[in-house]
Every structure is written in C-alpha cells, then in structure tokens.
Amino acid sequence: MSTAILTGQPVPGSSIEADLRSLGFDVRIASDDAAAGALLGEVPAGQRVAVVDARFVGHEHALRLGLTDPRFPLAAIPGAVTAQPAARRALALAMDRATAGGNTAASEPATTEAAAPEAVNGETAAGETAAGESPAPAAATLTGALSDRLVAALSAEGSDPHRPDLGSLVATVPGDPQTRNEARQAVAAVDDEAVRLKSAVKARDGFFTTYCISPYSRYLARWCARRGLTPNQVTTASLLTALIAAGCAATGTRPGFVAAGVLLLASFVLDCTDGQLARYSLQYSTLGAWLDATFDRAKEYAYYAGLALGAARGGDDVWALALGAMVLQTCRHVVDFSFNEANHDATANTSPTAALSGRLDSVGWTVWVRRMIVLPIGERWAMIAVLTALTTPRITFYALLIGCAFAATYTTAGRVLRSLTRRARRTDRAARALADLADSGPLAERLARALEPAARRLPGFTAPAAALLGGAAVTATAALTGFGGPWPVLAALLYVLTSALAVARPLKGPLDWLVPPFLRAAEYGTVLALAAGAGVNGALPAAYGLVAAVAYHHYDTVYRIRGDAGAPPPWLVRATGGHEGRTLAVVVLAALLTAPQFTVALTVLAVAVALLVLLESIRFWVAAHRGGAPAVHDEGEPA
Questions:
Q1: Are 206 and 377 in contact (CB under 8 A)?
Q2: Taking every annotated instance into account, which residue ranges of this chain make up the domain DUF5941 (predicted)?
Q3: d(CA 219, CA 214)
Q4: In the prediction, which pLDDT does 127 show?
C-alpha cells in the first residue's frame, strides 16, 4: 500500500481523495506543514509516499503518470510529488528544508501555476488567469504550496524529480475559484481514457505494427488491465502461442503451415499487447523487460527450428538456411546494440549523415520507408507468417535471408558513415560495455594484457580490422577446407591472437563498435561451416542448438548492460570459454573426431552451455526482481 499526504485547503466537491484511492493510495490529511512532516515520518520506510496539494485539479491519468510509475525513484507533477522507498531519505531531507522557515500553514494560498500550454488541446492552458494573462511555463515553481517547495528543495539538493510529459492532460493547482472552474472545464474537455489508450502505444514503431496491429491491440491491453492480467502473463501467453506455431510448422503439412502462420501473427499481437499493457497500467519491472526481450528471440528462433523440422518431414533439408538466418539476425542485433552502447553517452558534433537523416524525417513518407526496409520485427514476422502459409520453408528462408542481408547492409553502412564523420569522444562506460559485449575468454584476456603496450602504438582502426581479418580467416578456412583437416585449427589459433589484439586497448575508436559483431559472426559462422561440412544427419541441428545457447548468452549480456546491471559474472565467461575459447574448442573437436562423433560433441556442448547460461541468467534476474532493482521498460527493437 502506498500513502498520499494531502496538504492545503480542502475544496468542497473535489475528487482528489477518490482519485488517489483509486490509484491504490492510503490517503491521510495534514492540517499544516508540521503535520505533513509528522505523517511522512510515520509512513513505513518500505512504502511509496506522495505529498499532494488538496486543491489539485487534473486528470486521474495525470496523477497516475506522476505518482505511480515504478521506474523513477522521485517524480512530480504540478501540485504533487512522490518518492519510492529508495528516495524516501531525500524526500525527508527536502521536507526539513521546505519547512525550515517555520510552521507555515499548509493552507497558505499557492501562487497560480498553469498546466502546460498544450494542456487543453493546444489552446488555453487550464490555469490561465482570470485577466487573460499568458499562463506560466510548465516548469514554474509553486512557491506557496508544500508539494512544490519540496520539488524545489529536491532539485536544489541534486535529486531532481522526474517530470512526465502530460501532453494534453491537465494538472494544476488553481489559486482562486475562477481559475478552478476554468481548470475543471479543461479537464472535462479532454478524454482521459482516450489519452491513456493513445499513450499505451509505443511512440516509435514500424509501419505494420502502427497500422495493422496497434489500432486494436491497445483495446486488448485495456481488456487485460481491467481483468487484472499482468504484462508478464501476456508475454508468457505470446511465447506459448509462438511455440505452438513452431509445432504446427514442424508437422510439414500445408494445414500445419497455414496454422503456424496464423498463430505466429497472433503471438505478435500478444507481443505488442504486453508492452501496451505495461504502458497503459504502468506495470514496469526489471523482470518484465528481460522476459519480453528474451522471449522475442526465443519465439523467433524456435519458429525457425519448427520450419526446418517441417521441411525435413517433406524431404527438404533447410537446417543450414535456418541456422544462417539465426546467425544473420543475431549479428544484426549485435550491430544495433554495439552502436547504441558506443554512442550512449558520447559527446560529438552532428555528422552530415545524421543531418541528412533529420531532413528526411521532415518528409513523412520517407520515415515509413526507412523503417520498413530495415525489416523490424513486425514486418519480418508478417513476411514469415505469409510465406509460411503460402509457400515452402525453403522459400521463406531465402526471402528472410535476402531481406535481412539488405537491411543489415543498409543500417551498418549508415552507421559506419556516421561514425567516420562524427568525431565522437567516447566514455569509459562505453568502452567497458563494448568490452563486455566482446565476450572475451581467458585466452584472449591474457594475450590482450601482453599485447596492450604494442596495441597502443597501432593505428586507431586496428581493433575492428583485427577482429574482421581474424574472424574472416577462421570462418573461410572452416568453410573451404575439408572437414577434419588441420587448417581450421591453425586459423582458430590466429583468431585467438587477433581477437586479443582487438580488445588489447579500450574500445574508444570511431569504428570499435564493430568489434563485437565481427566476433559474433566469426564464432557463429565457424560453427555453421563445420557442421555443414560434417555432412551427417544431426550435425546442423546440433550446431543450431549450440549457436542458440551462445546467442542467448550474448543477448543476456546486452540486457544486463541496458539495465545498468553490468556484464555476466567472470566465472560464467570463464566457464563457457569466451568466444575465442568456444571457437577453438569446436575447431579442435572437428579435427579430432569423426563426423558422427562431432555431432554428439556439439550436442553435449550445446546442452552444457545452455544449462550454464540459463541457470545463471534466471538466478540473476529473479534475484534482481526480488531485490527491488529499479524498474525498467526497454522498448527494444521497433516492432
């Protein structure tokens, strides 16, 4: 239970108490500042607390946005401020400072603050003065109200509360009856529920999702909210639906393929609904963000496997295509993650490429075209579903590979141009994130320490060049030489050396963000080449399982970094060997074992890696959730 402390002169007919109770607050009344301070001290330390001016006029959803969002320790809207348990001490200190001038009556009239100018459909602000004067800026301080003095005190101490964008919603504390009536009229003029439904939809989304899914999935999200369903439950339902779709595809029959396509689209509808439900009801959590992101990858890659199994029932072996699609899609994501982390907090001038992109954004249709050609998850899943129902798995994978290859080329080329023309100064945090994404094991780390003095004297492009050349050498050798030969082993040893050189110094160069995707492509590509070269049944499915397990580990690393939780523990990286250790191990196994034995070895390795990374990942995220980790809402890949 959360607690709301109402301060200020009570207003007859006000709905503020009822609104707060409907949001889950236990409402207490403070007669003056001293009473408010005493009530604040009585609230248990593990509870959220809010201080709200009793004269507040506004939409209930404005209160919801300002007082119940779990992502922010401190938040405020005009006339109200809230603190979660982690920020209770800061609020208590602010209360002492705000009331230090004496026992100021909480009913002291507050200076009028209007809502933002757009508070009433872009016209007159709810708090405009009776004389028709221009409203005060949205950020103006209510000097007479306790809640706004608390906000000022918090900001002065460096604990600036989050201020949500209310858009057309009204949130104001009128200073006289006339402005109160105007504010109430402004509230009545804006449909609170319509705004809430609209805000449930992701601000930046793909064309297919925006026009084919969100127009009705938002209502499904509201239906779920009214029945007490949580985003995690909807996420789980989406996963189960996709797994059933994969099972239908695995039957290898036309009815099975049609059912698979329909169910995959249904799974995507639920995938959109879980995020919309989280935004609609503000049910954000660290665990939920991880489940949503992880299950998206699990659904798609399980569906690839289902298609490959279905094709095999019809006599067509497409496991190499399925594995190639997973490798390409994962490398695309690593490019996105690495580029974003490298530029997360970098300071730089605006590049000509970025300026051109900004100009294109002003031409509406170009925005949708550029969003579609990168083949985001909505367009990608729609294409897969339609092709599954109407064609064969082989055609589906061909189309997927061509589309993803074009999208990867387009996005990577643009980011390379931006990096070369944008003189960024990257931070230690960005360099650390890229090093974590590299997933270097004991071999690369020890060699990197030995090579560090020499690496610092090499040109700035050394890191990506070394990663690219070493990765290309081991992958090409595995693909072009006979299975079981010694040459891939020599190439893998060279790869260990070049991968160590790539991370021997901090990854702060303009193109150093390419190091992790180059390393991912090298490891996954080598496994694919060796399994294909083995030429026996079961080798490619075993390789698919191994790459899926390793890819999960790499995705989990990304989600930990995004949640400011750091990389996986060093023992896990050592136990799984790092990318260079796994690559060397697979190559050595291929050289020492027969093709059937190699298949068994890949299966054992896949199971071992999967158990290690899954158990540690689940342990970490459940512990973070139970330990009260700050809630996050990762928008992830545009749908």
A1: yes
A2: 428-639
A3: 9
A4: 35
